[in-house]
Write a structure and sequence with these properties.
Layout lengths: L8 E2 L2 E2 L5 H20 L3 E7 L10 E7 L2 H19 L5 E3 L6 E5 L3 E7 H7 L1 H4 L4 E3 L1 H29 L28 H12 L9
Parallel strand pairs: 4-7
Antiparallel strand pairs: 1-2, 3-4, 3-8, 5-6, 6-7
Amino acid sequence: MPQRGATIETGEHSHRMTTTEARQQTRILVQAAVQVCEDKKGEDTRILELDPIDSGLSDFFLVTSASNDRQSVAIADEIEHKLKKEFGVFPNSVEGRQKGEWILLDYVDFVVHVFLAERRAFYDIERLRKSARPVSPAEFDAELKAALAEKTAAVRKKAATKAKAKPAAAKAEPAPKPKKAAKKAPAKTAKRPVAQKAVKKTAAKKKPAAKETR
């Protein structure tokens, strides 16, 4: 029986995600893994939403069945490849791939179990997790779409409220008053040079009186 790992490496990080936004991201990853199960003809694919009491363990279990070991390996490999390529997410551990009877991909926030049908019946992890809420892929997809739609509506409402809160288009500021034109200094009348005036005055005084000719 495979043993679960304690943490997951997503890129360079290793931790359990707990915020609402992170949980929604986990749902997106689970949905991507579910799509691989359906594409690879996995049977009786189910999602177990774990009870909050088990939240320290994981948020979701994804369980699917394969008819033979080659198919189980193909499903596990494609899930790992898809999550790595599209989301940059890596499993913390992968176990059971060599035999292919029960392959476990541990992503910490969710765990993928790919069983051969008889092994799934034998271990019956759905029964062991009685407190978990079983969800079909269709139900899970509908819940995810509803959550995303709700988030989009909340973002739009927040943006609209923020826009209304702003003063009416930031009331156009009054145009600045035109500056008063600087007064032009009166043009100065050119003064004649003092020396020129004196010459003219002296010339007028020296004009001799006309002599009579006898």
